[in-house]
Specification:
The protein has 365 residues and is an alpha/beta fold. It is built from 14 helices and 12 strands.
Length: 365
């Protein structure tokens, strides 16, 4: 699935450092604004203990995890909606992603300059929110003008579109993101068609100092208070720690470093899993001697469409799916043991795949 998350934020908040840690790439991370002019793009592996457990049981030739595409977008400044800085480029890039990872700076360091001269993550977030909302207002106003012209014909549907567009515009003009709207049916469809920047799901990453990675600090406390009504996830990481981790070559060295820092896993693992969830994605598995593999689907996907992720022929000629629940597979230890216990289910075209299902598809083309 070609779904991707975009990393956004003001200049010098740690976006490129986070991108490097997520992808183990070497994007330019520099102490000056607009170090990232063109978006860096990378694929990140989604950590999943279930895949590792299945591989231990099956002992396959290959293990293939699932991935998410990540985009490091140029820093935005006040006035971006009017083209200031790299505003037009930033807004065009963010329009192309499916979800947003918004990095805010929550650490004090006189050696790392801040574009606005002081550390205030609440203010920083509001700057970006304002620019995205202003751009969305511009988009909705243009669409509303079109709907009003069509509504002059007296068509009921056109009048309904005007009402919905006006409701969306009212929320934006109240300085609230479009994602706070509770629309269904035609309203939800219209919102999707507008591709509004503030309608995209969002996760906040608070970039903190090493001492604050466990419990946060005054900056993260103020920030979390400011987003109470957003129903958004917040992840605390120290980009500095993550940068140090990827400089270590072996798993053993990395684990020793994490233990010394009092951490169970790299912070980027939490970011990746949250990104996956943000995109409304789940995982099912295929398990055999050649490979144990994780496959990405959206929540609510039915068996034929899940099969189509492997190959379009699987969906076209779908007959049925053999489904083993992950917990049953692990508890009983093998596919043969699951079959013997009568816990393999045969499912048809209407089966909605659960996160963690271990599946085998039968098809005929």
């Amino acid at each position: 699935m070609a779904l991707k998350c975009g990393i956004v934020g003001l200049p010098n908040v740690g976006k490129s450092t986070l991108f490097n840690a997520l992808t183990e790439a070497k994007a330019l991370a520099a102490n000056y604004p607009f170090a990232t002019k063109d978006p860096n793009v990378g694929m990140i592996t989604v950590p999943d203990e279930r895949l590792e457990k299945l591989a231990d049981l099956v002992n396959p030739q290959k293990i293939l995890p699932t991935t998410v595409e990540i985009v490091d977008i140029a820093g935005l400044i006040k006035g971006a909606s009017q083209g200031e800085g790299l505003g037009n480029q930033f807004l065009a890039n963010i329009r192309e992603v499916d979800a947003i990872i918004h990095v805010v700076r929550c650490f004090d360091d006189d050696n790392v300059v801040h574009v606005d001269g002081s550390i205030d993550p609440v203010r920083d977030k509001e700057i970006i929110d304002t620019e995205l909302i202003l751009k969305d207002i511009e988009t909705v106003e243009k669409r509303l003008e079109k709907y009003k012209k069509l509504a002059k014909s007296g068509e009921k549907d056109d009048k309904k579109r005007v009402e919905i567009a006006e409701a969306i515009l009212k929320v934006l003009e109240a300085e609230k993101p479009a994602r706070t709207l509770d629309l269904d049916g035609e309203g939800a469809d219209m919102l999707n068609e507008m591709y509004l920047l503030t309608a995209k799901p969002i996760m906040y990453v608070c970039n903190v100092d090493e001492d604050s990675v466990h419990g946060g600090n005054k900056h993260t406390n103020a920030f979390q208070e400011s987003i109470k009504g957003e129903n958004a996830e917040v992840v605390l990481i120290s980009a500095g720690i993550e940068a140090d981790i990827i400089e270590l070559d072996s798993i053993e060295d990395r684990m020793e470093f994490l233990n010394d820092m009092g951490l169970k896993e790299p912070g980027v693992n939490k970011v990746i899993r949250s990104s996956y969830k943000l995109l409304n994605l789940i995982t099912y598995f295929t398990a055999g001697e050649k490979e144990v593999r994780a496959w990405t689907i959206e929540v609510g996907t039915k068996a034929p469409q899940a099969a189509g992720v492997i190959h379009t022929d699987f969906e076209k000629g779908f007959i049925r799916a053999e489904v083993i629940k992950y917990n049953d597979y692990v508890e009983l230890g093998s596919e043969a043991a699951v079959k013997q216990a009568g816990k393999m289910n045969i499912e048809g075209k209407e089966y909605v795949v659960d996160d963690g299902d271990v599946m085998h598809f039968l098809f005929n083309v």
